[in-house]
Amino acid sequence: MYELDMLLHGAQALFNQPMALLLALFGVTLGIIIGALPGLTATMGVAILLPFTFGMDPLSGLLMISGVFFGGIYGGSVTAILLKIPGTPAAAATAIDGFELTKKGQAGIALGTATFSSFLGGTASVFVLIFLAPVLARFALEFSASESFALAVFGLSIIASISGVSVIKGLISGFLGLLLATVGLDPMGGFPRYTGGYTELFNVPFIPVMIGLFAAAEAFKSLEDPQVRAGMAAALDRIIPPWHMFRRQLGNIARSSGLGIIIGMIPGAGADIAAFVAYNEAKRFSKTPENYGKGELGAVAACESGANGCTGGALLTMLTLGIPGDAVTAVMLGALTLQGLQPGPLLFKDHADLVFTLFAGMLVCYVMMLVVGLGSLRFMGRILQMPKSVLTPCILALCIVGTYAINNSLFDIWIMLAAGVVGYFMQKWDFPASPVVLALIMGPMAEANFRRALSLSGGSYDFLYTRPITAVLLTIAILTLMLPLLRRLWAQRSPGGPTTINPAAGSSRMGTPE
Amino acid sequence: MSNAPAPGGKVGLRPQDRLATLVIAVLVMAVAVAAIIVAGDFPPTMLETDVGPARFPIIFAVALLVLCAILVFNTLRAPAAPPDDPAQAEPKASYGTVAIGIVATAACLYAMEFVGYAIATPIYLFGLMWLMGRRNVIANAAIAAVLTALIYAAFAVALSVPLPVGSLFE
């Protein structure tokens, strides 16, 4: 088999280049740190390191950047699980159940599961990249504006399943997020909407809002309870999940990795979307969907394998077609070009040795990520042993600095603070924050692609049902949105259904399905 | 929080939660109405095949109005929760401390514009630690200084991400 032979040759060549391996290790470690720090994303990490690759040989430079990419996606989960600070947008999905597990005293298992799931998701995506790249690249080309719109709508339908105790409150949060997502320049005409004359609002300040809603709101909440203020946070328990526990997640990880790979290939869709979609599907297939949102290990495994599965998918279209799947691969495309390599089908013919050595290096990067990740978790877990009276101020300071780091803008920090205050009140009265974040990710993608698709079809709405992928995704989206309602109706009709429904919550709180 | 299950499997709303939910719903409705009014001033699109910049915000705002109306209806219809059992009552939240924390954060941001990260942050950290019940002045000052330095080292030194210098020192 050609690919396997080339991969083995590549591995041989790689291990003769210790400097490339050392730089890959440096990249992975730096990526994990960058991912864990709020406000700093994998994109920023790759962009920071890009100038340093100019003087390196292509393999070393590209492996270092790949290491930052992989480590950056994984690193976001660490602070999301320990402190409810999503280091990256993808980790916002992980934070939902990851932080609940920490509150239950299972932070170690959650972190370990996140690490193994990231490793498995990422490794699977690199194998797909190696063996199925040409086949899948053709599928990626099927995605035009209408399919991207349908994918965004499918993503938005997940709001129903991440709404927590009340679907109505979740939908209000989601539509509030969608309305917020329209702040900024109109995607077609460039007209500024709801900006109040502030140029800083020309793009939706997504990351400041996310940091505020999750991390600052949680920090404000811990100020309110005298016992929490004085108390010590929990210590880290065992890190490596027991086999009987992890074995149950393997199917979930395989499915989520597959979803991540497919979503990663779609231009404009990244790890954040993959994590939320994987979360939703894990809940749909779970035997205990009612545990999602309350600290379910399967949710962490799904989000992390989905997000890391995205890496190979995003690289696939970038390397085979020259189309970057997300912002990080767009920067990596620049790195490849600077090294004199032209992405596209010819890359695999003209530079096959380099490409397969790079693939072998990517697999090694994921092994490094597993080792560095597991090795550093005990150290990172010490954060939990800090008294809350030190940890909470530290979290707020990190929120401020992390938000400032995005655009070097104090304006962004005010946005973060406002989102923190709003998030605090939302949390107090059971309005979930995750739908807002999801809507901020998907909203602009849905609007821009819908309007593009409409223009491409000459103003006809036919594209909604004549294109197979679009029609299938929209159907699944409608079903996903309606499922909680149907379940609730079914539960009410079936004998032994819920005796009391909380009308304000829009659902039963006594363990009956919505 | 807002609708704690009461003993016996019944659920209901406490008066303060009912009021808070209604206030939030009305505020969101006000935001939605304002969004629709402002969207009315958006210019029409020049493309015949486009729906224009106002269509999506209006759809989202109308959906918000409908959802909030449902929430208001459900909240008013919800039964009242039985009085809390004093033995099982949650510890009373200290909203004053939260308010001070939020004001302190705003003050830190305001000060940062003038005196920069290096001065505003340790004072802010010290103040929050004091607010959270740590009364050891020397230890708090030392921790605040160390945390400020660590964050500075991680962002400004290691990753070359500039932090606010402050207009007084620029």
From TrEMBL, chain B:
Could you confirm whether the keyword Signal appears in this record? no
Q: Which InterPro entries does its entry note?
A: DUF1468
What highest taxon heads this organism's lineage? Answer: Bacteria
Q: Name one Pfam family in it.
A: TctB
Q: Which residues cross the membrane?
A: 20-42, 54-73, 93-126, 138-161
The species this protein belongs to is Azospirillum brasilense
- Indicate the segments forming the DUF1468 domain, all copies: 23-164
Q: Which residues form a coiled coil?
A: none
**What is this protein's name?**
Tripartite tricarboxylate transporter TctB family protein
Q: Which UniProt keywords apply?
A: Membrane, Transmembrane, Transmembrane helix
